[in-house]
Each structure stands twice: as structure tokens, then as C-alpha cells.
């Protein structure tokens, strides 16, 4: 059982990246650009929120406060928020805008990653929940900005290609 938890906690992040990449490959060129714009802005926003959150809330790792050995070696720094869960959630919420089905699957993977890290003893549940919230807000903010400033360009590009009557 420990081995399964370790694999999910440490390596399922690769499934998140692969899933987001597969969705991106299936998009049209304008949607690929939109995906990239949202992803870059969401990554910056989510990381910024996580940095601020980590300064405002200090949560020692469970193995530090509980004096036990976690399933795998990990630094004894602030556990809030979970970086793995933040990345997986950010990819899930970004993908959700382009494929609901893939977004849901990636969100389930993100939750599994977070829960596995809790079971492994390297994070508390609040670290995982915080990451999911930061990723959601970061992607929502990025989507808002891209929709506000990029959609007019998409509409203009479509009008420019339409033949005149």
C-alpha cells in the first residue's frame, strides 16, 4: 500500500501534465493560443497566491509535529500549500475550460495527489485544500483577463477571414 501512495504522491503529477498536453494538442490554433495565455497567467497568479499564503500561514509538516518518518524523504519546511497539488489543480482547472471531461479527470488526479501526500505524512489536509483554492482563483483570474483582452482579437480574426457578401 505504501508503494501505491508514494507513486501517486510523487509521480501522478506527470499524468496531469500529459493530460493537459493531450487536450492542448487537440485544440484549434486560436484555442491553443488561448490555452497558453490562460496557463501562463494562471501559473503566475497561482504561484503568487501560494507565496502570499505561505507567508501568512505557517503549517509545519505532519512528520515534524508528529515525530514520525514519512513514506518518503522530504524537507522539513512549511507545508502550506502543497506544490504538487497546486500544479496538478492548476492544470486541471486550466484544462477544464477546453474539455470538461478531461478537466474533471485531471481534478480527480489532483485530489488523489493531495490525499496521497497527506497519507504519506508530508502535508496536512489544509495544505491540499489551500492549493486547490489558490489554483482555482488563479485560473479564474487568468480566464477573466484573457476573455477580456484576447476574445476581441479572436472575434476580429474571424471577421477578417469571412468573405464579403
How does this structure look, described?
By secondary structure, the protein is an all-alpha fold. The chain has one domain (2-22, 30-154). It contains eight helices and no strands. The relative contact order is 0.19. The model is unreliable at 154-165 (pLDDT under 50).
Main beta sheet strand tally, sense and closure: none
**Anisotropy-based shape:** flat
Question: What does the radius of gyration come to?
Answer: 18 Å
Q: Which stretches are low in confidence, meaning pLDDT under 50 for 5 or more residues running?
A: 154-165
Helix content: over 70%
End-to-end separation in angstroms reads: 67 Å
* Number of beta-strand segments: 0
Total number of helices: 8
Strand percent estimate: under 5%
Number of domains: 1
Mean pLDDT: 89
SS-based class: mainly alpha
Q: Sketch the topology as an H/E string, one letter per element.
A: HHHHHHHH
Summarize the structure.
This protein is mainly alpha-helical. The protein has helices spanning 2-11, 13-25, 29-56, 62-66, 83-96, 100-119, 125-149, 151-161.
Amino acid at each position: 500500500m505504501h508503494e501505491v501512495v508514494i507513486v501517486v504522491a510523487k509521480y501522478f503529477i506527470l499524468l496531469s501534465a500529459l493530460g493537459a498536453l493531450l487536450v492542448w494538442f487537440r485544440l484549434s490554433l486560436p484555442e491553443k493560443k488561448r490555452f497558453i495565455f490562460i496557463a501562463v497567467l494562471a501559473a503566475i497568479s497561482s504561484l503568487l497566491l501560494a507565496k502570499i499564503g505561505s507567508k501568512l500561514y505557517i503549517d509545519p509538516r505532519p512528520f515534524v509535529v508528529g515525530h514520525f518518518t514519512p513514506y518518503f524523504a522530504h524537507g522539513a519546511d512549511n507545508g502550506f500549500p502543497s506544490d504538487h497539488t497546486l500544479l496538478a489543480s492548476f492544470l486541471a482547472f486550466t484544462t477544464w475550460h477546453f474539455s470538461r471531461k478531461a478537466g474533471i479527470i485531471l481534478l480527480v488526479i489532483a485530489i488523489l495527489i493531495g490525499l496521497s501526500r497527506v497519507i504519506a505524512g508530508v502535508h496536512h489536509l489544509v495544505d491540499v485544500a489551500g492549493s486547490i483554492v489558490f489554483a482555482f482563483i488563479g485560473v479564474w483570474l487568468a480566464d477573466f483577463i484573457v476573455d477580456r483582452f484576447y476574445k476581441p482579437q479572436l472575434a476580429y480574426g474571424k471577421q477578417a477571414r469571412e468573405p464579403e457578401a
